[in-house]
Amino acid sequence: MEATSPGFHRQRNMAQISPVARISDLCIGFFLVLLLALAPVTGSAQGKLKKRVDEDFSRIDTDDNDLISPQEWKRRGNFEALDQDGDGFLSKEEMAALYRAGSRGALEHVNEPVNPPAMDASYETDKIATSALDHVTLCGISRESCKMQDSEAQFQRVGLFETGLGPQFPKEASCLGIDDYFALPYNYKRSSSGARHGGMDMPAAWDTPILAAADGTVVGMYGADNSQRGREIVLRHAPEDTGLPVWLYTQYAHLNQAPTLKLGQRVRMGDLVGLTGNSGLSAQGDRPTTGRRPAIHYAAWFSDSRRYADTGAAIVPEHGFWLDPNGIYRGGPPFDSASLKALPENEKFVLIPVMYTDGTTQPANTRLIWPYTCTHRAKRLAE
User: Fold this and answer.
1) What does the alpha-carbon distance between residue 101 and residue 128 come to, in Å, rounded to a whole number?
2) Origin, by domain of life (predicted)?
3) Checking CA distances to 306, which of 35, 164, 219, 246 falls within 20 to 30 Å?
């Protein structure tokens, strides 16, 4: 037998490979290169999530005992659901489940707004110039044109301070909860010592549908590079929309895509208003952020007036005040932060009306819902 070198065998075998096989090998090679290219991105995303969990856990664990108590959790919701071992505390691993939302919030049937859209003419007639607003309201709600030395006082006057409210979901429901609660001090991530979180954040999977909390009218829409809130939509809800004796405004921000709605368009409770993302400028406001986890930023204001101004970056109700979004679901007054803060402790947990993924609501006749759908616990266990 003629002796041959390994190199000769390789050359001969390559010559015998068909063109189809060569193409197949090239495709496999390209796929492997692609996986290697994407691996650092995936690792980076996991690293950012771990950093977020570590930072949040350290900040919430005020007594540094490596466990979070119900008192430290401050009514962010879902404490019992996250406490998997039932010991009355949250470990870091248990808390991390808050950021692994999975498919919760996915709709079986998406409620698209009516087409052709129903329009509300008062969207234009009720709009006023920003010059018609008093400085306290303009500064305290838009947080524009505020002097650093008096911004904290302005925020206090319009209700941007902690109330102690928290969500309590129906026992039958598995719902997405809060990480950054209303008026959380943000001095650990902002340059201003008086910085407060104007709303509450709920982590969710990318592109989880965000729902209109009630019937209402689209009065504001802003782009990804407009502010730290990123892509956002603002709805105005008349008293007849909610059954509440005030004009209510709800804000949905950090959207992954621009809303397909139009200014002045009417939406129904449960209609799709956007998809969950992490859009928005960095804390320094100089560039789009890439490190924020996907979540909805959900905020609310109330007013005795139907009139409002659009600053070009924010909606500001005339005579407006901040409203802890949990307070929307109490069913009636009080709405102001001072009165909500003064409520007895046994009234601080608010039973939240919800919409399930199949489109049903609890209670059945509610006119307000949580902005993410919930799943039935029995169904989730079966999955």
Assistant:
1) 41
2) Bacteria
3) 164
pLDDT tens across 23-78, in order? 344 343 433 333 333 334 445 666 767 887 888 899 889 999 999 999 988 878 88
What domains are defined for the chain? 19-98 (1.10.238), 103-382 (2.70.70.10)
Which of the pair, 284 or 365, is modelled with greater confidence? Answer: 365
Instruction: State the Cα–Cα distance between residues 57 and 74, nearest whole angstrom.
Output: 13
Phi, psi of 56, rounded to the nearest 5 degrees: -65, -45
Residues whose CB is less than 8 angstroms from the CB of residue 147 and which lie 6 or more positions away in sequence, other chains included: none
Nearest CA among 179, 181, 177 for reference residue 160: 181
What's the N-to-C CA distance of the chain in angstroms? 63
| Chain segment 178-226, per-residue pLDDT in tens | 988 999 987 655 555 457 888 999 999 888 999 999 999 999 999 867 6
The size of the chain, in residues, is 383
Quickly list H helices, the chain.
6-16, 19-60, 70-73, 79-82, 92-96, 122-125, 135-137, 151-157, 239-242, 337-341, 377-382
Question: Higher pLDDT residue, 240 or 147?
Answer: 240
Q: How far is CA 167 from the centre of its chain?
A: 15
Token pair, residue 56, equals 């949040």
β-partners of residue 232 are 222, 253
Closest CA to 235 of 251, 222, 254: 251
Phi, psi of 278 (to 5 degrees): -140, 30
Decide: 241 and 215 in contact? Cβ < 8 Å.
Answer: yes
| 341 in Cβ contact with 326 (< 8 Å) | no
Pick the closest to residue 165 from 300, 56, 293 (CA basis): 300
How buried is 52 (Cβ within 10 angstroms: 0-12 exposed, 13-18 middle, 19+ buried)? middle
* Closest to 267 measured CA to CA, from 210, 233, 216: 216
User: Two tokens at 237?
Assistant: 């809800």
